[in-house]
Amino acid sequence: MSELERNKQVVIDYYQTAFNGNPEKAVADHFGPHYVQHNPDAADGPEAFIGFVHYLRGQFPNLRLDIKRVIAEGDMVVTHSHLDLEPGNPENPGQALADYFRLEGGKVVEHWDVIQAVPKNSANSNGMF
């Protein structure tokens, strides 16, 4: 398996493990010696990430993260995902996420994201995913 494919698998496992309810395992398995967070609403470090996931799952216990695309280049992995906070609720269709992860030695060390609410109506029929 190439390093790019390995990095993709690391990010997929990290992200799914965390948002399926086990952020401690995701951090233990996949975080590097430091974690830099670029989302201005989140603090740096593994403890902040773990706390955020527990908070979010506390607010939305049935949330579901569906990774639609994964792209890797160099030390970066990008995911395009649907974060459905309330599956089955047409009033809250969730969020479209673009997450950028930088890895060192096969471990996640840095994160950026772009988040957009999934609208109830669209000017086109293409969908967001």
UniProtKB/TrEMBL annotation:
Against InterPro entries, the record matches this protein to: Cyclase_SnoaL-like, NTF2-like_dom_sf
Query: Which PANTHER family does this entry report, sorted A to Z?
Result: ESTER CYCLASE, POLYKETIDE CYCLASE SNOAL-LIKE DOMAIN
Q: What is this protein called?
A: SnoaL-like domain-containing protein
- Any one Gene Ontology biological process term? polyketide metabolic process
Name the domain of life this protein comes from: Bacteria
Q: Name one Pfam family in it.
A: SnoaL
